[in-house]
Amino acid sequence: MLACPSPVDLSSRTLRFPTGRLRRRRQRTGTRRRCLPAPRQALPALARPRCGDTYAQLAAGFAIATACRSLREAVDVPAALAPTPAEAMRVARATALVIPEGTLLPIGRIAAGTPYPSGKHKRHGRNVQVLTDPFGRLLRAWPALPGSPHDPTAARAPGSVGALAATGLTCRADRACQGADGPVGVPFRGRRLKRGPRRRHGTHAQIRCLGERAMATPTGRRLLRKLRCGTHRTTAIVQAVLLLHHAAA
To answer: Using CB atoms within 10 A of its CB, is residue 97 exposed (0-12), middle (13-18) or buried (19+)?
Structure first.
């Protein structure tokens, strides 16, 4: 296999974050010596979400004999640092409102796990719900759900909009959250609206666009445009991408 290294727009700060976490994990667990040092192990883990290369391509390009095990370890370390629901809610209480947003991440290896067809998108995938603040910063990514449930079912799953309603936070959601409990604001239904509802509908759309723009952070990675790994790895990969994005900011 011929491998040609390509440039990746990553800063030194982005590389130092997973490198330090890998070194701490090795010291804490007392693991045996790896075939690669911590910086060399973290580099392909940072390049894979942006380039979307397979394990075989990364193994040939970075000269790694155990690419699968090294990359999984490098992904699990930042994914374990993802904020818990309590931490996310504590940060969200300091803001004026929160914006939940969801999307479907297509999957390619259907035969490797349980198929998750989505009737809306006409493809198999995993439904991911995220939470953003009014400034468009991602606060938390909830565990991935199957792609078969409709948007209202995924939005009302335990820990997402239901948890926001229980805390009393002001929330600006889309039409999928129609009928949700608590201070959850949704756009008006219908096409011919009067002047007052139409004006409030435009204000709601201006706030909602910040959440949709923040959702482009995980979906802009080539790896998440079509996942070719096991479906049980979706949550860890999304949380690792969000942690690395915050480290680079």
So the answer is: middle
Domain count, the chain: 2
Is the same domain home to 120 and 190?
yes
Q: What is the mean pLDDT of residues 156-168?
A: 62
Q: Which helix (H) or strand (E) covers residue 74, if one does?
A: helix 67-79
In a domain, 128, yes or no: yes
For residue 38, the enclosing domain spans: 12-79
Distance CA 15, CA 244 (A): 9
Between CA 205 and CA 176 the distance in angstroms is 14
As a whole number of angstroms, the distance between CA 189 and CA 197 comes to 10
From 79, 101, 123, give the residue that closes a domain: 79
Do 59 and 149 belong together in one domain? no
Residues 219, 202: Cα–Cα separation, whole Å? 25
pLDDT band at 104; cut points 50, 70, 90: confident
Q: Please tell me the pTM assigned to this model.
A: 0.77
Cβ atoms < 10 Å from Cβ of 200: 14
Tokens 């939005």 correspond to: 155
Percentage of residues in the chain having pLDDT higher than 90? 0
The answer on pLDDT for 181 being more than 60 is no
Q: How far is CA 19 from CA 22, 25, 34, 40, in A?
A: 5, 10, 13, 9
State how far the Cα of 249 lies from the Cα of 240, in Å rounded to an integer. 14
Gap between the terminal Cα atoms of the chain: 35
Q: Quick one: DSSP state of residue 227? A: B
